[in-house]
Each structure stands twice: as C-alpha cells, then as structure tokens.
Design a protein that fits this description.
By secondary structure, this protein is α/β, with parallel strands linked by helices. The protein contains eleven helices and eight strands. The structure holds 3-methyl-2-oxobutanoic acid. The site of 3-methyl-2-oxobutanoic acid (KIV) has 14 residues, from strand 6.
C-alpha cells in the first residue's frame, strides 16, 4: 500500500489556502475504505446514506447510531489515514444539545472518527457549538438534506429562488459562527455555492452537485460505480460500471456451476493415495 501521512485539519486548511481541491467520498465498508486509502482520498464520510445504499431502506431515517458505529469502525480499519467523518443519524442530535454531544462523542470514542457531520442551519447552531466546545470537529450540511427531504419536496434542487437562497446563505453564516470546520452544500445552484465559497472565512465548502466553485467535491461512492440500482442522480458521474461488471461475473458463475465447468482442479485440494486408503480402512 502507498505510504501516506495521516490527514489532519491543518493539512486540509493548507490545501484550501494553496487553492488545491479537497477530495471527499462516502464509504461504508472495509474493502472500499482500503481502496479509498490507496487512492489518497482526503476525507471520507460514513454517511447515513448507508441506510439506502447498504441496507436497502427507502430513506436514511431508520438508520441508528449502532448501524453508524459498526460501519464507521470498519471504514476506519480500512483507512487509518483519511480524515474520517461520522454522519449523525436521524434523531441522534435533534433532541437536545446534551444528546448531540453524547452521540458525537460515541463516534470519536468507539469508531476513532476525526469529525462528525450533521444536517441543518441556524436551528442547529446550538448543537454545533456544543459539540465543537466538547473538542469535536463538526461539519455542517445544507441545501438538500436527506433527513428532511420529505419536508423539502423530495430530492430536488434547493435555493433556486432568491428567498430560499438567502435562507441558505444565512444558515451558512450561522454554522460558521457556531464553529464548523466545513459545510457540505448539496444540490444548490452553482452561483450560490460560488458566492458562499468566496464569503466564508473560517470554514471551507464542499460541493455535492453544487458546481465546481467550492473548496472541494463529494460524490456518493455507490453512484460513481453503478452500485445503487434504484436511481442515478443527474449530478453524479459514473466512473466505472462496477454494478454491470459484478452482474456479468455472477451470471458467469451461475452458468459455470450449472454446466459443471466450475470448479477446476486448481480450485480444489487433493489427498495422498496412501492416506486416503488408510482412511478407508479405518471405516471398515
Ligand atoms: O449520508 C450521506 O451520505 C450524506 C450525503 C448525501 C452527503 O449526507
């Protein structure tokens, strides 16, 4: 494996100051984390999107802290050096500041995260400042926020109109004031993302379908590789169709076993004649 240094918050901010783009992907399991580590992805998000991509739910709402911790531990084992962010699942931070700090602390203590992420704007500022005051780096998430997608009219562009754009801008300022180190802008217009990127001073902006003018980009891993069968968001790019590749392999396996072409001698192990004869005698 390529040796890499542990990614840190100062190193991320240095990249931003040098005008280098930050790379970020979602990840939910050990083998994928191992590959993302080798590819030198800067930041890995164990998103509660795992409820849809890995567990087959129709939304992220049923995902629990236990689900998140288990997957995040696996990702940390595969990627010791990325900046690892645990996504706070539904109702793990909404209830109270104390509850938010407690659950953020679990991500750090039980899954060796570097940071946590939560959805929401000004209404979540007290949660953010509480978690940050507990010494836990925190990322915000605005625009399309899947935990409240229902209330926002589904998985659609946010901030297209002036009033909603101003609301998102104000939420960015509130989160920055509360102490986030970064904000994910998901599915907002490119020029809104660009303006916000230019205006923030103490945090950096990551775009997911919000255009090129952010400090970095995020993609959902399953969308990049054709691994989520239910839909392919327009904002995603298919880098390789691993889903099709795996399906072909599976069909080939079924055909080979059915036609007795698998296994071949290189796939099994023999036993010396004298040992087998002795074994047969032992049965008599
Ligand atoms: O859960 C997740 O993967 C996320 C992305 C949609 C950014 O929050």
């Amino acid at each position: 494996m390529t040796e890499r240094k542990k990614m840190t918050l100062p190193a991320l901010f240095t990249k931003v100051l040098n005008g280098e783009q930050i790379t970020m992907l979602t990840c939910y399991d050990y083998p994928t984390a191992y590959l993302q580590e080798r590819a030198m992805v800067d930041m890995i998000l164990v998103g509660d999107s795992l409820g849809m991509t890995m567990l087959g739910y129709d939304s992220t709402l049923p995902v629990t802290m236990e689900d998140m911790i288990r997957h995040t531990q696996a990702v940390r084992r595969g990627s010791p050096n990325s900046w690892l962010i645990g996504d706070m699942p539904y109702m793990s931070y909404q209830v109270s500041v104390e509850n938010a700090i407690h659950n953020a602390g679990r991500f750090m203590a039980e899954a060796s995260c570097d940071a946590v992420k939560l959805e929401g704007g000004a209404e979540m500022a007290d949660r953010v400042s509480g978690i940050v005051a507990a010494g836990i780096p925190t990322m915000g998430h605005l625009g399309l926020t899947p935990q409240s997608a229902g209330a926002k009219g589904g998985f659609r562009l946010q901030g297209k109109g002036a009033i909603q754009a101003k609301q998102i801008f104000d939420d960015v300022m509130a989160l920055e004031e509360a102490g986030v180190f970064a904000i994910l802008l998901e599915l907002v217009p490119d020029r809104l993302c660009k303006l916000i990127t230019e205006r923030v001073t103490s945090c950096f902006i990551i775009s997911l379908g919000a255009g090129p003018d952010a400090h970095g980009q995020l993609l959902i891993y399953h969308d990049m590789f054709g691994l989520y069968p239910k839909f392919k968001p327009r904002m995603a790019k298919l880098y390789q169709d691993a889903g099709a590749m795996i399906l072909n392999g599976l069909k080939e396996y079924v055909a080979e076993v059915s036609e007795r072409r698998f296994p071949q001698p290189e796939n099994w192990f023999g036993m010396p004649d004298e040992e087998f004869d002795q074994f047969l005698q032992m049965l008599d």
